Each structure stands twice: as structure tokens, then as C-alpha cells.
User: Fold this.
Amino acid sequence: MDRNARIYVAGHRGLVGSAILRKLREAGFRNILARDRRELDLTDQAAVTRFFAEARPEYVFLAAARVGGIRANSSFPADFIRDNLLIQTHVIDASRRFGTAKLLFLGSSCIYPRLAPQPIREEYLLSGPLEPTNEWYAVAKIAGIKMVQSFRRQYGFRGICLMPTNLYGPGDNFDPEGSHVIPALIRRFHEAKMAGAREVVVWGSGTPRREFLYVDDLADACILLMKIYDGEEIVNVGSGEEVAIAELAEAVRKTVGFEGNIRFDLSRPDGTPRKLLDSSRIRSLGWKPAIRLAEGLKSTYEWFLSQVAAK
Ligand code: GDP
Assistant:
């Protein structure tokens, strides 16, 4: 990838796409293409074809997706499977037809079986049943992986697939019901602190364990793989730092400076009990995370204060 290469970041307004865009700019890439949803609807095949025919991106980071937390996934299963299948099919197919040199497809750790052995190795894909709260999203992402792999086999298309663990950071969605756990808790603890409330409710039992990765670290991994990796095998990217949701809630409470109690709402789902990726493949390629959870929570809270709470 030279500095003048035409690079398309699909989903540049999202958590992952905006981090990739930031990192590419910092690294001196000058020819970055981005279109927001009003300019280019990726669920519209004709519009995607027109865009690729004109812009002819040489490198594509496919970070556009309909994403959401445990509640959004189970409330809108049709949106999650439909939009993701459409977006990824259109972008992957147009990339191949219009001569893109390389495409990176972003999956998710929820593609793995619900009860996969931990830490989860790449080869556990399709070895058991999925977690039901997000199977619609997972099935779409698995189809995306298989599409990229089949294009490589049949057309020699240079597509690669990266599976990130649970992500967080600046640019996340802080919607109280639809978001993932970290932005949801940052917002809830913050609002409780402002209102002088005595307690904050955290969904589920607090016992599920999750691995969290700060999105800038993920963006570094995306750019590294785009530069040096060209294989059919999918690549996990996780921090190796795993916490129980109860510990996470405590860490967010401290970050925000809320003095009250935490109550667990057992009527809300826990989701999968544990989801820790084995990231030895990406580590052997020279990547490691730089931002620990405490530090990442602090900068995410600062971003929330300046960009969300202030508005
Ligand atoms: P998941 O990894 O796909 O389950 O994604 P989430 O980030 O939505 O949820 C992670 C875990 O945090 C689950 O066990 C949730 O039940 C728990 N959790 C606790 N409080 C919240 C909350 O306010 N919002 C969300 N989304 N999850 C929460």
C-alpha cells in the first residue's frame, strides 16, 4: 500500500471505520475514500456498483455493518441478517469486479460456537451451535468469511478476514438500549452520577466474561494485515485481557466517579458465558495491543463527555 493508493474505508463513521481512517491519516495515506450513508447506501447494489466503477478503490477496509449489543441483536434479527448480508455481498462483489487489489473483511468473535473451548482458535469456526442472542448477525458474518474465501479460491481475489474481539473506544454508539456493554455502562453511570442516584442497574448476572480491545489497537491490526497478510485463514484479534461483567462495571464506576451501588438485573440476558480469543496468529505477525482497559475506559469516557454528553 503506497501513500497514494486509493483506499476505501466502508463504514468510516462507525467505531472501527473511524479508527482505521484516523490511523491511515496519521500514517500519511493521502488518497482515502469515504462516503457516508446519505451519499452511498451500501444495501443498494446499483449504488455500490456505480461507486466502484467511478472510484476504483485499490484497497478496501470493509468495516460497514449493522452492529449492536445483546438487546438490539435479539430485537431486530431481520435487520441484522439482511443488512449485513447485503452490505458485505455488494462490497465484496464490486471489489472483485472492479479490480480492487486487496480487501479486508471484519467479522466478529460471535461467529464462534457458544461453547467453544477457550481461548478460541480460528479453526473452531463452524464446530458447534452459535449463541442464540446474536446468531443472526453471526450467520451473516460467517457468510461474509465464506464469500471472501470462495472468491480467493475461484477468482484469486485477495480478500482477508479479521475477527475482532469485543471492541470499545471513541466513536462508539452510546444508545442506552441498543449499544454494547461498555458505552451503555459509561452512559448509565454518568447519568446516575449527574442525577445523584443511589444505584446503577447492570444487565444479567455479572458473571459472563468478556475480552475487550480498544479500537485504536484494532485499527493498527487492520492496517498491518492489509500490508503483510495474504492468506485464506481468518485471523483473531484480541487483547488477551478478560474480565467478568461485574469487574467491568466496577471499573466503569471508578472511571466515571459514581459513588453508589451496582445492582444486577437477572431478567436481562447474559449471552455467551465466555468469549476469549486466541490471538497467537496476529501476535506472531508482530502486533500487540498498546492500551490497557483502565486507560481505554478513561479516554472513552472523555470522548463521551466531549462528544455525547455535551450535546
Ligand atoms: P455480547 O458480547 O454480544 O454479549 O455483547 P454486549 O456488549 O451487548 O454484552 C456483553 C455482556 O454485558 C452481556 O453479558 C450483557 O448482559 C452484559 N451487560 C450488562 N449491562 C449491559 C448493558 O447495559 N448493555 C449491554 N449491551 N450489555 C450489558
